Amino acid sequence: DRGSEGKPFATINFAVTKASSGDTIFVIGTVIESSQILIDSKDLTFQGQSDAIVERSNPGRIIFAKGTSDLTFKNIIFQNANAALQGSVILTTNNNVVLTFEDCLFQKNTNSHINGSVVYIGKAEATFTRCTFYNNTATKDTARGVAIIFGGPFTGTITNCTFSENKLTENTANFGAAIKTLDSGESQQLTITNSL
Question: What's the angle, vertex CA 118, arms to CA 102 and CA 37, rounded to 5?
């Protein structure tokens, strides 16, 4: 049966197109995406096995979430994304998106956009628990934030997370290398607990 553990789909992108809302997609081994994964109005869980790695084979963002979506990512390494777009690993700019990341590692991702973060949360709700952001880089001289940017009305929760060796290589604007919130004059709530 295609899509089973014995005959897995080659890409997450294809698995998402076949999945129904409420499904769990199991990520096994290294999955190399050649194009952006678009998730539009589906509630999905992405469950990584002990060796789950997701990366891009060429420049571009890994995931764009929109519509009404409730997405959970567990035990996945996101690495080697290289984008000139907001959010080299994931972008959402929709009020109806809820993102949950548990035990994920974001490493060796690069971004050259002004909002050059690994994760860009715009107008959404996001929770990060026991996640690590390590050795990610923003190269734009006016880049703001390397690991996570929150913008628009948002609710963010970061618990037991680690931010280490993230770099702004050409920064002249003195913005941080871990987390940046963009003031929009709208409702914003960010809670950070037991993280460094």
Answer: 80
The answer, as to whether pTM is greater than 0.90, is yes
Reference 131, options 161, 107, 157; nearest CA is 161
Tokens matching residue 103 = 């035990």
Largest pairwise CA distance in the chain: 54
Give how far Cα 140 sits from Cα of 31, 81, 112, 144, Å. 28, 15, 5, 9
Report yes or no: 184 and 154 within 8 Å, Cβ to Cβ.
Answer: no
Q: Tens place of pLDDT for every residue, the chain, 196 residues? A: 677 777 889 999 999 999 999 999 999 999 999 999 999 999 999 999 988 999 999 999 999 999 889 999 999 999 999 998 889 999 998 888 999 999 999 999 998 887 778 999 988 999 999 999 999 998 877 677 789 989 888 999 999 999 999 988 765 565 667 888 887 777 789 999 999 8
Cα–Cα distance list, 133 to 26, 84, 85 (Å) = 22, 19, 18
Query: Residue 103 burial (CB < 10 Å; 0-12/13-18/19+)?
Result: middle
In what side-by-side order are the strands of the sheet with 132-134? 30-33, 53-56, 77-79, 105-107, 132-134, 162-164
